[in-house]
Design brief:
By secondary structure, this protein is an alpha/beta fold. It is built from 14 helices and 13 strands. The protein has a seven-stranded mixed sheet with strand order 2-8-7-6-5-3-4, with helices on both faces. It has a four-stranded antiparallel sheet with strand order 9-10-13-12, with helices on one face. Strand 9 and strand 10 (about 285-290) form a beta hairpin. Helix 1 (about 15-20) packs across helix 11, helix 2 (about 35-45) packs parallel to helix 11 (about 235-245) and helix 12 (about 250-265) packs parallel to helix 14 (about 330-345). The chain is globular and about 60 Å long. The structure holds ligand TLP. Ligand TLP binds next to helix 3.
């Protein structure tokens, strides 16, 4: 199968598996797993933050970051297209009693500064307290767009001036840094905390790391335990993360290049339009004009029977994500298959 549903589907390489199999481990709840400690230290260094915390997923990283900053009834400003709002099962509300205050995401993944300023609540006795701002980089639902350092710096400054914490859902922060041609630690210089995922384009099987100030990570560690996320001999999986950070960051540029080639090929096919200014990084969003009586579900099924899996994002839109397990030949096959099926499914 050529699986374009997400970069989460990547499989560990043979060398990564070897590194995992030979990892030295201990009990990480006692903070005695040398491999986890090494991953957390390495991650913090890469992000230019004081400390790191290894977690099972990006969702848990964002949740723990928010719970470490907020009390029940507090408010978090986030984009209305953010992953934290759409795809994290309402965890902050369900488990923390925290209110998301959503503001419109612009097509470039940002939130207007004026909107943020207007949303920050004052001392009025009727109002809940604003504690935090969460931004996303790259921004998934805005097309995998990389949000600039200038913007992150500006919001970081604003957050500081209002005694708020700025957290970045950086599930794909390395894709952003590569696209923007900036060191990742520069990109997140003015933010308080960042979660990044090892199990997306970086190709590790499990895990994310939350980085930030030491006292914040101390609180986050306790909350992770409270959520049942304390892991024991987690060095086995942390070793996959160390391998990924050592070997798989620079190659993300290949995924971006393949996304360009894929988009260039597909846009020539009648009935296919590039959507959300694709490709921004490793995601190609398509908008399709279907012939009468034909539906995206039927096309989806036919692609599947031809060995191609895609992600559906609406009744006429789909997302194709390039990653470690997609090669140049796959790109040719995908374009060829779409071209063949277009005559049957799409308007010419
Ligand atoms: N995103 C997944 C799905 O959940 C939609 C994907 O296939 O793109 N932040 C962002 C920006 C993400 O895209 C994701 C995963 C997460 C957080 C959550 O990471 P995990 O899956 O590790 O909980």
């Amino acid at each position: 199968m050529i699986d374009l549903r997400s970069d989460t589907v990547t499989l560990p390489t043979d060398d990564m598996r070897k590194a995992m199999a030979s990892a030295i481990v201990g009990d990480d709840v006692y903070q005695e797993d040398p491999t986890v400690i090494e991953l957390e230290k390495m991650s913090a260094e890469i992000m230019g933050k004081e400390a790191g915390l290894f977690l099972s997923s990006g969702t848990m990283g964002n949740l723990v970051a928010i719970l470490a900053n907020c009390q029940r009834g507090d408010e978090v400003i986030m984009g209305d297209q953010s992953h934290t709002f759409h795809y994290e099962v309402g965890g902050v509300a369900a488990l923390g009693g925290v209110m998301p205050h959503t503001l419109p995401n612009q097509p470039d993944g940002t939130i207007l500064i004026d909107h943020i300023l207007y949303a920050i609540r004052g001392e009025d006795i009727h109002e809940q307290t604003t504690k935090m701002i969460v931004l996303e980089n790259t921004h998934n639902r805005c097309g995998g767009v990389a949000v600039s350092k200038a913007y992150l710096d500006q919001v970081g400054e604003l957050a500081r001036n209002h005694h708020l914490s700025l957290h970045i859902d950086g599930a794909r922060i390395f894709n952003a840094a590569i696209k923007l041609k900036v060191e990742v630690k520069e990109l997140v210089e003015k933010v308080d905390s960042v979660t990044f995922c090892l199990s997306k384009g970086l190709g590790a099987p499990v895990g994310s790391v939350l980085c930030g100030p030491t006292d914040f990570i101390l609180r986050a560690r306790k909350i992770r335990k409270q959520l049942g996320g304390g892991m024991r001999q987690a060095g086995i999986i942390a070793a996959g993360g160390i391998y990924a950070l050592t070997h798989h960051i620079d190659r993300l540029v290949d995924d971006h290049q393949r996304a360009i080639e894929l988009a260039n090929g597909l846009k020539e096919i009648p009935g296919i339009h590039l959507h959300l200014k694709s490709p921004q990084t490793n995601m190609v969003f398509l908008k399709l004009d279907f012939q009468n009586q034909k539906s995206i579900d039927q096309l989806h099924e036919r692609l599947r029977s031809n060995g191609i899996l895609v992600g559906l994002t609406g009744s006429s839109t789909m997302r194709l994500v390039t990653h470690l397990d997609i090669n140049d030949n796959d790109i040719k096959k995908i374009i060829h298959c779409f071209s063949e099926l277009s005559q049957e499914f799409l308007m010419s």
